[in-house]
Specification:
about 0% strand; mainly alpha; 6 helices
């Protein structure tokens, strides 16, 4: 546990019966939304890998009927097809979890009273935009977007799923 994490943990335990300090609220909300964003990035990476695997199999699959079973080319094709099937299965499993997490995060973010806070958090965490793009889309400076983000994250505390309010690595 780093020094700042120890400090946050001490703050948390001292006011356990009270509302946690703003920094803890921001940290927990940030961890939650980064988790959801990372799931989306993983889904995109799996989708790209599936397309890559399909492209590799494309020319091979057209000629598979010409091949004799047991040749090296057929073995490579079969290995590639098996790999593609594994990737698709992994993608489907991960996608189900991501869709549920995305839905929850979208509801949490959409419940914020400020439209600009919703736009900032949605752009960054649900649409995976870079901060400069979020700033451009909202007509704010990057510095202002960071400040809006902090206030929005602090405001999310009451709306966070309970399991994200007291993670050991968050406090």
């Amino acid at each position: 546990m780093g020094t700042s994490q120890v400090g946050l943990y001490q703050i948390w335990t001292e006011v356990d019966a009270l509302e946690p300090c703003k920094e803890v609220r921001i940290h927990c909300a940030s961890e939650y939304l980064e988790h959801v964003r990372s799931l989306g990035v993983r889904i995109e990476a799996l989708r790209d890998e599936i397309e890559h695997q399909r492209a590799l199999l494309g020319p091979l699959s057209a000629r598979v009927a010409e091949r004799v079973s047991g040749t090296r080319r057929t073995d490579r094709f079969e290995e590639g097809a098996i790999r593609l099937e594994e990737l698709i299965r992994e993608y489907c499993t991960d996608l189900v979890g991501y869709v549920e997490e995305y839905r929850k995060a979208h509801e949490v973010i959409a419940s914020l009273p400020s439209g600009v806070q919703v736009a900032v958090l949605t752009g960054r965490y649900l649409e995976d935009k870079q901060w400069d793009r979020v700033a451009l889309d909202t007509n704010y400076s990057v510095k202002s977007v960071y400040n809006i983000r902090r206030e929005a994250l602090a405001a999310l505390w009451d709306r966070l799923p309970i399991e994200w309010k007291r993670l050991p690595e968050a406090v």
